[in-house]
Specification:
single chain, hpI Integrase, Chain A, two-stranded antiparallel ribbon, two-stranded antiparallel sheet
Length: about 190
């Protein structure tokens, strides 16, 4: 699927998966007997609930985990931002980092290891990468009614035009909005 912007070449729309596919991946990790399955589950849950980039996940330090948010330091373009987190994720992160020092990296893995974790728990028939979680997060948030300006700030996009590409993926909203238009002929 491509997106046309006036005066430009078509751009490919980001690939995303449904909440159900993400939940199946989380379930796969939850039931894995691997010694790192708890960490791997938490990494995927973290990506799903925050929409952060893979590199931002890998750089997260314990001191950046607050009670209701995380601080993303040195994101794309060197920008810092605050990303809200839900109570479930907050509690899990606090338990997971309980014995860590403030400057310790929460998930001390490489980007290749992150890709391998995602690959290990993927659902058959889906090509899923760490960035797929980001796209899926954005689409899910918009489908749940999140304000696009708030989503822009969470994702750390410099301009609203970057975030607006996700609107093209939320087809049900377009159909619902169109259905509200009264096309009857007035007499």
């Amino acid at each position: 699927m491509e997106r046309m912007v006036f005066g430009s070449t078509p751009k490919k729309l980001p690939k995303f998966v449904s909440k159900e596919v993400i939940e199946q991946m989380l379930d796969n990790a939850r039931h894995d007997k691997d010694k790192h399955s708890t960490r791997n589950h938490l990494i995927m849950l973290f990506l799903w609930h925050t929409g952060v980039r893979g590199a931002e996940c890998i750089k997260l330090r314990k001191r950046d985990v607050l009670s209701d948010s995380i601080m993303v330091r040195g994101g794309k373009g060197g920008k810092d931002r605050t990303v809200p987190i839900d109570p479930e994720l907050s509690g899990l992160l606090r338990m997971y980092t309980d014995t860590m020092k403030a400057d310790d990296t929460v998930f001390p893995i490489t980007s290749r290891q992150l890709r391998n974790i995602i690959y290990k728990y993927r659902v058959s028939g889906y090509d899923i990468h760490p960035h797929t979680f980001r796209h899926s997060f954005a689409v899910y948030c918009l489908n749940q009614g999140m304000n696009i300006k708030a989503l822009q700030r969470i994702l750390g996009h410099g301009g609203l035009n970057t975030t607006s590409i996700y609107l093209d993926l939320v087809g049900s909203d377009i159909k619902e909005s169109y259905a509200k238009v009264d096309w009857r002929v007035s007499q």
